[in-house]
Design a protein that fits this description.
Length: 222
């Protein structure tokens, strides 16, 4: 893997200050401090110059983080949770007014787009057929020079996956997530759908210091 380009990595506490006090700020600080996700996404996208569509963007953390790292491509995020989009919109107005956020359900299809796509920690909220449709739609929007970056928990025997599932269920029970997980994808299914749409890439564990069974897929059109 290429080393992360030499940029100042956003510091968790300062980065979180941009978000409203309470749960959004606390969640953001913990997420940036402990999860290697956004650094991994930056590493994948750092050399791209294509617009980015972030599907299931939540409060827009990924887009804001990438922008602070210096990724100056047009960015657009969508999520079906209007309360998270409202937070993302407030933060964008203060920090990155050109990043666009909208409330939209990925099960209804994706908007027109050509470039890179990120799908981070949302596949498990979709039924299997909807996962396949979303993966195909995302792959079709990846242009030459763009990338598709997916992070997801993978179903597997063992404590990591059991803990991932338990935390996803708890997040829904506590209303932090609008929906409960439905089914967790398998790496071979992700690869099959993406390759059928002309993409090639890698899928690897992305655990960092977290206890979860998270994997990262980075695919591109060759
Ligand atoms: C665990 S959060 C991840 C948020 C963001 N991708 C990140 O990594 O910071 C999962 C997100 O997927 C969104 N989501 C779940 N199902 C969705 C759907 N059908 N359409 C759009 N967003 C969805 C949730 O509202 C939530 O914001």
């Amino acid at each position: 893997m290429n080393p992360l380009p030499a940029v100042a990595r956003p510091r968790a506490r300062e980065f979180a200050q941009q978000f409203p006090k309470g749960n959004p700020r606390y969640y953001t600080m913990c997420k940036v401090a402990m999860d290697p996700l956004y650094d991994a996404v930056y590493e994948a996208l750092a050399t791209t110059s294509q617009p980015l569509l972030d599907v299931g963007c939540g409060m827009g953390l990924c887009a804001f983080y990438l922008r602070e790292c210096g990724l100056n491509v047009p960015m657009r995020g969508l999520d079906f949770d209007a309360s998270k989009i409202a937070v993302a919109t407030i933060v964008a107005a203060q920090c990155a007014p050109d990043i666009v956020f909208e409330t939209s359900d990925a099960r209804g299809g994706l908007p027109q787009h050509a470039g890179s796509v990120t799908i981070l920690d949302i596949l498990q909220y979709l039924a299997l057929d909807a996962q396949g449709e979303l993966l195909s739609a995302a792959a079709q929007r990846v242009s030459i020079g763009g990338k598709l970056v997916i992070r997801t928990s993978i179903e597997a025997p063992g404590w990591r996956f059991a803990l991932s599932k338990a935390v996803d269920r708890a997040a829904a029970a506590l209303s932090w997530m609008k929906a409960s997980p439905v089914v967790y994808p398998r790496p071979e299914t992700i690869r099959r759908v993406l390759e059928a749409n002309g993409l090639h890439g890698t899928i690897r564990p992305l655990w960092g210091h977290t206890p979860f069974n998270n994997w990262l897929a980075v695919f591109e059109r060759t």
